[in-house]
Design brief:
Layout (H helix, E strand, L loop, with lengths): L1 E5 L3 E6 L6 E8 L6 E5 L2 E4 L5 E3 L5 E2 L6 H9 L5 E6 L11 H10 L1 E7 L3 E2 L4 E5 L2 E6 L4 E9 L3 E7 L3 H8 L5 E3 L3 H6 L12 E4 L2 E2 L8 H14 L6 E8 L3 H14 L1
Parallel strand pairs: 4-8, 10-18, 13-18, 15-16
Antiparallel strand pairs: 1-9, 2-3, 3-8, 4-5, 6-7, 11-12, 12-18, 13-14, 16-17
């Protein structure tokens, strides 16, 4: 398989879900083997697990918060090489999903490059367990994610993603980030979720969803989206079966680090 980039520059803007401030990014075509690179204030940073600084309520690369939805879109669309210029402290949340990024990539077009994709093949099982959550990567001939969650009010949900851009666009990309109304004020006091609204998140109240979900199991689909974005921080596509239970960004990033150490 050949590496891919975008055919032309993409500009996207909105607000940061945590800062509540204007956020803007520019995606630029990049040469083969350059990978996904972020640029902020004149400094460049590769989208790699080693550069993750924080994992609370999102994945922060260096000083760039909430990178996972964009990374998921790039991985889901098979994009290997892009330079992402960031203007602000966060990647814009858009509608809380990866769909706006996917649509922008489709509009710009995808260009095949001369370099071959270099895959990471998981050859032995890797397990991470902590506080009732777990994530496992095992040998597999392709890429598959099986995810299980259980949340107050909405209960248990499961979803299996078997890979490929078509399935990603239809089943994963539209799933929005979500949160509980009762937690919002506490998060804001900690400097988080200042830009959260019903326009960019699926809200959950005491009796269920406040705004209409795009899927009955939208939360678990978004967890798959987050995991795909975090796995992109391996720097190359991963060939493995991933099984996750109630996991989050911290365990996801640790899994990537262990995969890289084992190859």
């Amino acid at each position: 398989m050949k590496q891919q980039t975008i055919k032309k520059k993409i500009l996207l803007e909105g607000i940061g879900i945590h800062s509540g401030k204007p956020a803007k990014i520019a995606l630029n075509p990049a040469k083969g083997d350059s990978g996904i690179t972020f640029k902020k204030d004149g400094k460049q940073l590769r989208a790699l697990a080693e550069n993750v600084k924080k994992t609370e309520r999102g994945t922060t690369l260096g000083e760039i918060a909430v990178a996972e939805h964009l990374l998921a879109a790039l991985a889901g669309m098979g994009i290997d090489n892009v330079l992402v210029e960031v203007f602000g402290d966060e990647v814009p949340v858009m509608d809380g999903s990866a769909l706006p990024f996917v649509k922008a990539i489709e509009e710009a077009g995808i260009e095949s490059q001369s370099k071959e994709k270099a895959l990471i093949e998981v050859k032995k099982t890797i397990n991470i367990e902590a506080d009732g959550a777990s994530v496992m990567a095992g040998p597999f001939s392709g890429f598959k994610v099986e995810f299980m969650v259980e949340f107050p009010v909405i209960g248990a949900q499961t979803f299996a993603y078997t890979g490929g851009s078509e399935e990603f666009i239809k089943e994963i990309a539209p799933a929005r980030t979500f949160g509980y109304i009762k937690e919002l004020e506490a998060l804001k006091k900690r400097g988080l979720a200042k830009g959260a609204s019903l326009d960019n998140a699926l809200a959950i109240g005491e009796k269920g969803f406040i705004n209409k979900p795009r899927f009955p199991d939208e939360p678990v689909r978004h967890k798959v989206l987050d995991l795909i974005g975090d796995l992109a921080l391996a720097g190359r596509p991963i060939r493995a079966r991933i099984v996750a239970k109630k996991t989050g960004h911290s365990a996801n990033i640790e899994l990537v680090r262990r995969i890289l150490c084992s190859t």
